[in-house]
Amino acid sequence: MTDLGFIHRYVPATRPGLPPLLLLHGTGGDENDLVPLGARLLPGTALVSPRGKVLENGMPRFFRRMAEGVFDVEDIKARAAELAQFIRDARKAYGLDAPVAAGFSNGANIAAALLFLDPDALRGAVLIRAMLPFEPEPQPRLSGKPVLMLTGARDPIMPHAAVERLAAVLAAAGTAFTRKVLPAGHNLTPEDISIAAQWLEQRDD
Prior knowledge:
This protein is an alpha/beta fold. The protein has one domain (8-202): Alpha/Beta hydrolase fold, catalytic domain (Rossmann fold, 3-Layer(aba) Sandwich). Helices cover 33% and strands 23% of the residues. The chain has a seven-stranded mixed β-sheet with strand order 1-3-2-8-9-10-11, with helices on both faces. Strands 4-5 form a two-stranded antiparallel sheet. Strands 6-7 form a two-stranded antiparallel sheet. The radius of gyration is 15 Å and the shape is globular.
């Protein structure tokens, strides 16, 4: 679908009472990329999966970067605001509650930016292979918002200091924060899926 400002996929819910998932792909993915993952993470929930609008060597992303791990902060903020508006429009169009973001890599980083800049847009977040997208000022207040962060111990893509800083900011913000460091690189693993699915099913928000 191409309305609501983003090319996106929407999959209606088949189980009532579940929070919808906002699926945010990594670099080179698209609106189809994480739909099978979403169906495994929380079977029966509604899925909303937008395609990032920024192209890097022809590969979709959610915001610009100058180099690996070096982000265009002003672009992140503008793209996060645009994505927050898409969430509001999608909720109205499809009759949805606030979603839980499930993001991988670049998608996890834009989800973190959303938490900092427009926390009411999300009910919570699953951040897989995320790093701090920018230093938030003022520090965000995210009291009780559930956040799961899954880090690869051998991830060669995400700078270690920026990964640890994101964890520190989220914990200091008062989130209901869970973090797991997995024996993995940057790739998505079956353990990521298992942990995230269990976390989503057991959430108490």
